[in-house]
Amino acid sequence: MQRKYSNLIWVMAFVMLFVACQEDEYALPEAKTQLQNDCIKRSIGPNVAGLDIEFVYAAALGFGKGKLTNMQVEATIAGAAGTFMEHHSFYTLPNGKDTGIVVASPSVTVGGKTEVTFTRDTVAAALRYYYKIPEDARGKSVSFTFSAKASTGETVTYKMGPYTIANMEMKRNIVLSDNNLAYFSIADMTAYNAADAAANAGKIDLVYLYRAITGITFNHALVAPAADADFRPGITLPAGVSNNVKIQRTWALRDRHLANLQYGIYVDDIDFQELNLSDAPNWAINLRAESGAWVETADGKYRAYIYVNSVNNTARTMTISIKRYTVK
Amino acid sequence: MERIIKISLALIIIVFAGIRCADYPIDEDGLLITERAECYVSNFELLGPDFQTVRTKAAVIDTTAQTINVEVFWGTDLKRLWPQFSLVTDAKLDPKITTWVDFSNLTTPKQWTVIAGNRKVQKTYTVYVTVQTKP
Q1: Which of A21, A63, A247, A284 is deepest in the core (most CB within 10 A)?
Q2: A266, exposed or middle or buried, with CB in 10 Å at 0-12, 13-18, 19+?
Q3: Is the dihedral angle over the CA atoms A242, A247, A249, A250 positive or is it negative?
């Protein structure tokens, strides 16, 4: 029996010896010398009019083969004022700080085309491109064609997109105050005082108030003018202010755009399209910093997400940011 | 040598046969029907649309009277609340809670039945919601 196992082990050892891996000799890969390019999109989340879409476009050719002469981007819809391509090439310091070196003249934008011309001998560069989303792109798609030229006469191109531009609109850091700017219009995304609210009565959708009531938790609240008077104690509504809205409080929905680039959640068009507030009340009390509320206007024209940036019990104020979607 | 291997294998088989899992039946929800007859609610939570509690204090669970009394904050929207029951081991709840529950009709309290692990004992709990009074 022992002899049988011994033979088997010898046979297996011989088989392993013959099928052992063969060692391949390593050779350094040869870099391509012709002009080549690449591109990444740096910005994430929904593309909202007024914000940037940010790219990094890189081009390079072999050392000693020539130099880059220019780079350009062509957008299918011309960007808004503030669209530009960096004329700095960045490297990162050991402390993590990006440091730019001027390699080209400042970019020139004409229509949808943005171009930089290199002013330094450069064989490789990665330039950032900021496309400021224009109002007329809302709800449409936009694509980009990046290209680079070299002194060798070579040209390379790289297409990015299409990217859908969201329908929703956004306004940030609106201050509401209990004793002054207490009336908020979703149609205007603006806070009004009592006198202006009376002049715009049909547009007032929410009343802001702060009450510290012993025995219950009321604090900072947004209520519809049509809400029960219990939910707006001590408030006499300006003449004609009577709209009703549906409002539903949320927690831990800290939209990155509205929270001034903190956190990693985004409210997008689809959230408004699928929102169902049919059973929602017309009040939201005890709103805290970093909470929020979904709102739908009485006429069903607008749906909105209101994010509470901060509250101040002493000053009796609340700072909000809003994303608004037009339903009809 | 061969004899030792055979004896070892036989012992392993005997040990495994002895400690095999009991073959419990499965109910219509794919849950094991066990021998437990205990049937009660051990904890109760009530969440608002923002998934935060709306209770002002811990719910009072009476396992004899089979009632749950819970007080919610003034201003709570009673139409859209999500109750959460913690049950004794192996028990299950009927009807299942798969969406928001409307508690706005305070005069007609909601009821849920706890079914024990052996599926032979059932106890119906009534949930009484009261709203914190405004001073």
Answers
A1: A284
A2: middle
A3: negative
For residue A177, give the nearest of A189, A201, A200, A194 by alpha carbon: A194
Query: Using CA atoms, how far apart are residues A75 and A114, in angstroms rounded to an integer?
Result: 8
- State the smallest CA–CA distance between residue A213 and chain B in angstroms: 8
* A248 contacts in chain B (CB < 8 Å): 49-50, 77, 80
Residue A297: pLDDT over 80: yes
Residues of B near A (CB-CB distance < 8 A)? 1-2, 48-52, 73-75, 77, 79-80, 100, 102, 132-135
Which pLDDT score, from 0 to 100, does residue A3 have? Answer: 67
Q: How many residues does chain B have?
A: 135
Residue B18 is predicted with a pLDDT of 57
Q: Within an 8 Å CB–CB cutoff, is residue A234 touching chain B?
A: no
The confidence score (pLDDT) of residue A99 equals 87
pLDDT band at A10 (very low <50, low <70, confident <90, very high): confident
Mean pLDDT of chain B: 90
A304 CB burial (10 A radius; 0-12, 13-18, 19+): buried
Q: Which domains does chain A have, with CATH numbers?
A: 36-164 (2.60.40.3550), 169-326 (no CATH)
**A283: chain B residues, CB-CB within 8 Å:** 75
User: Residue B80 is nearest to which of A217, A230, A279, comparing CB atoms?
Assistant: A279
Bigger pLDDT: A25 vs A313: A313
Total Cβ atoms within 10 A of residue A204: 28
Give the model confidence (pLDDT) of B109-130 as tens digits.
Answer: 999 999 999 999 999 999 999 9
Nearest CB to A251 within list B1, B50, B134: B50
Structure tokens at A235: 């408030």
Q: What would the pLDDT profile of B30-76 be if each residue is shown by its tens digit?
A: 999 999 999 999 999 999 999 999 999 999 999 999 999 999 999 99
Q: Cβ A249–B132 below 8 Å, yes or no?
A: no
Residue contact B132–A248, C-beta within 8 A = no
Instruction: Report CB contact under 8 Å: A214, B135.
Output: yes
Q: Is A100 helix (H, G, I), strand (E, B) or coil?
A: strand
State whether A230 and B134 contact (CB < 8 Å).
yes
pLDDT surpassing 90 at residue A9: no
Fold classification of B24-131 (topology level) = Immunoglobulin-like (2.60.40)
Cβ–Cβ below 8 Å for A213 and B134: yes
**pLDDT band at residue B11 under the 50/70/90 scheme:** confident
CA distance B113 to B107: 19
**Contact across the interface for B134 and A215, Cβ inside 8 Å:** yes
